[in-house]
Amino acid sequence: MDFNRLEILDLLEGYQRKEFSPSEVAQSLLTSIEKKDGEIRSFLQVRPDVTLDAARAIEKRSSEIQKLPLYGVPIAIKDNILVTGWQATAASKILKNYVAPFTAMCVERLESAGALILGKTNLDEFAMGSSTENSGVAPTRNPWKTDRVPGGSSGGSAAAVAAGFAPASLGTDTGGSIRQPASLCGLVGVKPTYGRVSRFGLIAFASSLDQAGPLTRSVWDAARVLECMAGYGGKDATVSRSVVPKYTENLNESAFGTVRNLRVGICTSWLEGVDPEVRTAFEAAVEKLKELGMRPVEVELPNVKYALSTYYLVATSEASSNLARFDGVHYGYRTPNPKDLDDLYCRSRGEGFGPEVKLRIMLGTYALSAGYYDAYYGKANQVRRLIQQDFEAAFEKCDVIASPTSPTTAFKIGEKVSDPLTMYLSDIFTLPANLAGIPGISVPVGVDSAKLPIGMQLMGRHFDESTLFQVAYCYERRRGALANAPWRGSKSGAGA
Amino acid sequence: MKNPLEKYEVVIGLEVHAQLLTKSKMFSEAPNQFGANPNEMIGPVCSGQPGSLPIINQTAIDLGVRAGVALHCKIHEESVFARKHYFYPDLPKGYQISQYERPYCTGGYVEFALKDGSVRKINLVRIHFEEDAGKSTHASHGTLVDLNRAGVPLIEIVSEPEMRSSEEAGQYLRKLRSILRYANICDGNMEQGNFRCDANVSIRLHGAKEFGTRVELKNINSFRYVEKAIDYEVSRQADALEQGEKIRQETRGWNAVKGVTEIMREKEMAHDYRYFPDPDLPPLVISPQLIQKITTEMPELPDAKRIRFIEEYQLSEYNADVLTNSQELADFYERVAKGSGNAKSAANWVMNELLGRLNAVGKEIDDTPVSAENLALLVKNVDSDKISGKIAKTVFDEMFASGKSPDAIIAEKGLVQISDPAALEAVVKKIIEASPSEVAGYKSGKTKLLGFFVGQVMKETKGQANPGLVNDLVKKHLDG
User: Fold this and answer.
1) Which of residues 452-481 of A touch B (CB under 8 A)?
2) Domain B421-479 - what CATH class?
3) What pTM was estimated for this model as a whole?
4) How confident is the model at residue B269 (pLDDT cuts 50, 70, 90)?
5) Per-residue pLDDT tens for A473-487?
6) Residue A248, domain member (yes or no)
7) Which of residues 29-48 of B touch A (CB under 8 A)?
8) Rama region for B379: left / alpha / beta (φ>0; ψ in -120 to 50; rest)
């Protein structure tokens, strides 16, 4: 049986009907990773024995299948998320061989829901990038077209799901790192509200922006993974203690009634400069939302034009602080034969970090330094509040805001590496949700003339993931199956 | 300069780091315990593992609030944790979590008495929370890092630069430590480093409005050394100014062996700490209800106890001040006073005899071999004339040496005072008969010789005779 194409819902139904077992599924996926991931390079680590042991262990609990919402579901985990005994390198030389001493709260929750850890996936080093080309190991290829990037920074997680290696994966999203690769790989990707998912066990990039979330092949799957991984666990002071809704409960015919008459906000001025094919596909998707009974309304987001500058001050400042711990003293890479303490610091960090990480540490260090704090970090936080207020005002007039997820489809490997600013522009639609702390979801809306997927982003009010899921679910049903998806074994991808 | 104080005024501000008496660390569940083997009291947060996050220890907050209440501070309902960055091997995250622009306490004061009896009130700038760093030990083969101390909760208490002498600085610290110990906030052990002091010292001409350039003194691990280091620094600065030099803003360490301060780093090498609000921690909220609860539960503090001792036991200001210096001493004194029913005598015994002797052997009141109950019994024995005051000192010596009860010692050594006139009369007669020339001298008007006879009787009875009675009997026989 071909397990590569199955969604979480298919797996759960198959297990229930005893058509196949978790070990069979895990074994099959591990085999295809072994065979085909040499080209894609979505995984940095697989441990077949560990995964198969976990599969056999969960089979012994088959009587609890009803109580385990992710019974036997293999999930790939981005390598900046800790799982005890697995490596956690953030794709950086500075953490090469680092083995996690504890498990991230969100993964612990997935495991107690019955999920199996399939492996650790590639990313831009420390999640800094939009193409996974900044990985300190190797770039990941897009399963839709292997000369293309999968997006980033969760490019390995996106490619693993798109290639059919895993039905779902976890990514982290600081400025679009789940939604943009989801868009470029034809997947559903969710950046939850800041404070919805515990950051305990995430290798921090920018603490006030980071959130972990799922990448899947369907809206229902994403809702299922998020409802399992979210919630307060007592180990992250920024997590909300509010109850996590059962998002999947409303993902049925009733959703169509809920969605009818909701208002979808569109900020037309924001769409300038978007690739024409992306724009056309987005406008067609908005037409489908209208067919569902939703009412488009024009909204103003006057300060989102500052989102990029704001983001690169806030994120780099926090990163320069968060990455100070990688100093060659207590763990991770240490330069051989340092002359003295300063030499140990300078060379361990100089040799251990890649160029993009060093660039961002330097930017952030500068922005926080005495005499510049007010002009940079301080000012950026003021603008950040203005952007938050823009969204608050917009959500007075609408229930969700729609935009393209990325201004372009997947670009060629190497095309943008020499020009970081153009690369940064990949994230203009996704950054504002991180700055505002609101949830965002990317849903595939079609493909361009090069048969590369295009995504639509829906953003919602704080902690209103439910509405996003319902709108996305109805849209997805209306849209129908995606053509040429590589996990179904289309010729262009790894599934061939 | 012989006496720099004649020309210059000394300006001192103190920064005290007090470790809080919690079971676990400031931001993690790792135990807060002194004296364990290196790196045994640590978890992922202490060693700055990637993915670890700080969680605020509410007990530390409660103790900090208690300090704020005890020191009369304004406690802010909302304060902010900030990251202070610098690279050092005993700081595994590369930053220390502290409070910067918005500390939880501002204002407040410490009041204390000086030896001349005057009372000084020193205002506080602020108190803020922070986590301690680990400890580096520099050995010949390299530097060893122990993270047991990393993350231990601290409060930093910053005074205004209002102290004008080393004595004031010493008394400020003693009083501050006493308050923190009374309220069970901090152990106050300078040697173990759970109460640490940095002193900012400058001098200026008397009457000058501007402060002089200040020097920060570090590494001072006793009250005496604080005083000595300040005195040294004042002379050094005065000498420099007299020779036309400028004082450099710098950090100096106290070298206790040489008795001098030595340069550690100059201001040009000062760090840019790049403070910014810690995004892992929401603002700290301290509710008025919590402050109210902690105020209600506050134990009696040294000032209140001192006033009560003066009223209840009719003690002098000075004695009350000494006896309330620590909770343990005050409790000990109260047990002796109540047990003996003679508060004044109890104060003399505790202060003059017991503290003196403890001091001589370098012990604290906690380690006293003489229990409060036994000391009370000794006072009672004197008051009831069972033994003389002089014998009592002999008995006390034995109590201090052996820890035995006074009654056991008196019985063992037969030290009960002889107050039987018949028995003493025989001794008196014997002495008078044996000293004809002294008797003649006395009769010729040298009445001071009375003391000679009394002394001889006391000697003969090995000090056990009741001195008052002997006096009466000698007079009776010589005058009669």
Assistant:
1) none
2) mainly alpha
3) 0.90
4) low
5) 999 999 999 988 999
6) yes
7) 44, 47-48
8) alpha
